[in-house]
Amino acid sequence: MVQVQFADENETTISYAEKAYQLLINKITRLELNPGDVLVEKSLISELGIGRTPIREALQRLAVEGLVLHLPNRGMLVSDIGPANVQSIYEFRILVEGEAARLSAIRATEQDIEVLQSLDQKLNQANEDDDIDEFVYLDRRFHEALGSASKNIYLQEAVPRIFNLHLRLWFYISSKNKSWQHVAHSHDDMTKGVVDAIRKRMPEKAQEVMISYISQRHQEVKDLL
User: Fold this and answer.
1) How many domains does the chain have?
2) Helix, strand, coil proportions of the chain in percent (round to 5)?
3) pLDDT tens for residues 148-159?
């Protein structure tokens, strides 16, 4: 299950900022906070039980990631899900995750491959168990492992950063279709195909499988907008 690590009273303000960030990420990606919702500091402090400074630090971090916007005279609000924004996200995903898959097929160690294979199997099990929290947790780990296997420090930084943006769109597709299983099954096919190509040292195939999956999700979102 996805678990947010809560800071105790002896931990620093940075820990509380991380707590605020994780709580807000969950609310935004799962559409509990809708696109366009205004984020009122006072309300967030009351709801999350966290002080003003950590809340502000979390909001600034979310703004850098593109999930929150700061507009003059309106304050902070959850970023919109629109055609231009969606296209930019998926174009970036193709560049970053496609290349991460390709490089991983060239550079991944045997240990990297074992980790990816294990996560692929666990993702499939979470899907079968209808455990969406576990699935999301493992999906995040899979993408982080893929970035690590690429042995490119900039891709390792970029892959986790884009994750929350595409996770929100994943929940958007699921909410519109009234089910997350369809997307999850397609995702399982992708992870299996990517891991298999990496294991066989087929970089172009790994990239092709990843790009095909991302393009399918992009088309789904476009059809729903």
Assistant:
1) 2
2) 75, 5, 20
3) 999 999 999 999
